[in-house]
Amino acid sequence: MRKRLFSIASLLLVGFASQAQEVKFEEYDLDNGLHVILHQDNSAPIITTAVMYHVGAKDENPERTGFAHFFEHLLFEGTKNIERGQWFKIVSSNGGSNNANTTDDRTYYYEVFPSNNLQLGLWMESERMLHPVINQIGVDTQNEVVKEEKRLRVDNQPYGHLLEEIKKNMFKKHPYKGTTIGKMEHLDAATLDEFMAFNKKFYVPNNATLVVAGDFKTAETKKMIKDYFATIPRGKEIERNFPKEDPIMEQFRAKAYDQNIQIPMVIASYRTPSFKTRDARVLDMISSYLSSGKSSKLYKRLVDDKKMALAAQAVNISQEDYGTYAVLALPLGEVTLDALIAEMDDEIKKIQTELISEKDYQKLQNKFENNFVNSNASVQGIANSLARYNVLYGDTNLINNEIDIYRSITREEIKKVANKYLQSNQRLILEYLPAEKTQEKK
Question: Which stretches make up the Peptidase M16 C-terminal domain (predicted)?
Fold first, then answer.
């Protein structure tokens, strides 16, 4: 009886996700190449205006890293028609909020306003695109802001350099070997002309997607978009030809040291494909199976049952060109790092040699259905998803049908993909150690 109830609940969840969560949208291009996506939801008087630029850390000159993240800050400095320091005041005084974020692959700006301020949101984003003021005062100001952010979030944060150490070892040719925040000496050495050239190249309509989501009237909104954005000049076409990585053919090891930690960490890291691929989505499921929640395999084995680790996790760090799959753990007491690796390998070996149970498979499906529902639960979340799927995947409708890909993944595929990518001869073993200890027991 309990099994039948479990199955019925699962079917209800699938039905809810497939019917209630369809996101309707309209998309079109302006003559200057700006891609526009409209999602109308008149259930609440809220509007989100957002622009995603297809520029991230991987697009930078390797001698000038940190530019994309720097522009996340710099393009709030002001414009021809917005005085320096007034951007956030204008937004907040009109009942809105705004923010921005940067990855290796894209930069995203957005505002959330009461819907009667849609015109203001569109005007501000058009100002950012057409009339940014890039001068030495703004550059110097934001340089200090970025340095403080790096000190706070990276340099003084326990395990703050972990991702940096993984990336620089996993990638030898591709620009993913760097960090999103970049090197401060590169920003210090950059000239104003270099910042202006970066803006002219990447922050152009044909390298951007504008999303308007929420409570609006379609005809009026289209007219405003045309009025504010259509006259912005098209930029030169951007060519991307990043170097390809050589396959990892044998296991290699590295060490890194962190003055902010007392407990070491060991990481097994594997290079994986772009998040556009089906295999990347299978790897998402494998990471959830291994370490999502306290009942997951790695946590239960290493933390609960054997009491060998303080924490254990598997994560699929998937990006536009490549991905990195990392399995990590923090030892408890005198447990050695190699002992943790052996335990993690054994758990992966089970996935490679046996089909996961039907119960665990259904649990995975339920988790991904729930994630899908939650990601589209707000207008702001929908705006982000629409922009991301269009800019990075080239398929906006994935907001509706990506969940079908996850639904179609089989237990046999999970086994096959684990064998394809999670082999011990295709990985880095990174020992992330306290700085004061030059040798760690193994």
Answer: 190-367
